[in-house]
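tool_call: predict_structure(chain=1)
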Amino acid sequence: MEIALSQEAEEYIEIIYKLQKRNGIAKTKDLAENLHVVPGSITNTVEHLETHGLVAHEPYRGVKLTRDGERLALDILRKHRLAECLLTDILKAEWSTVHEDACKLEHALTKNVTDLLEERLGFPKFCPHGNPIPTEEGLIEEQPTTALAEAEPGQDYIVERIVDEENVDLRLLAEKGIKPHAAVKVLKKIDKHIAVRINGKPQELTCDIAACVLLRKNGRINHAVEA
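tool_result:
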């Protein structure tokens, strides 16, 4: 499927995919918040995507990707996350700074360049934020996780991945030592904050930021599922 879309339209597809995975559907309000636009500007682009058979709009509910839309979203995510690996693994950029640059790079990557980049990087399975990189065939490795905001006090976890990179302050997380593979113990919840121990050091996070940090317990095995 070859559909020429603008950079803006591709960003819509990517955000719709993430919201759909999280909430089952992408509501207009959430789309506007994640794309940093006013809700009234959403309609035209969604209608454009619908004419290409990439999304289905459900009145008063929101937008969902079609099967073609999901495959396109996975292709965009693959390029984005490989671009992040390029920036960190080859160009040695800090993992907490690469998201925005990767957003620009992903739209310039052709299929041939993407395949060459993936090979050069050694076929990585995860981006620097711990999120799985979709394969060309539409497979993506996932593992059961628990959001830090919902984790059990007193329990030991490992940071699996950080999501919602568009809205979370990655530099703040990096300063606190919260990154993939970091050891986390939840100490207690205080109002809208969570006290934790990260690699042995006490830290405090808001529940909003903690919701973007996904954890796993030791001993779980990654498995590939079809998206």
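agent: Helices lie at 7-23, 28-35, 42-51, 67-90, 99-106, 111-120, 170-175, 207-210. Proceeding to next step.
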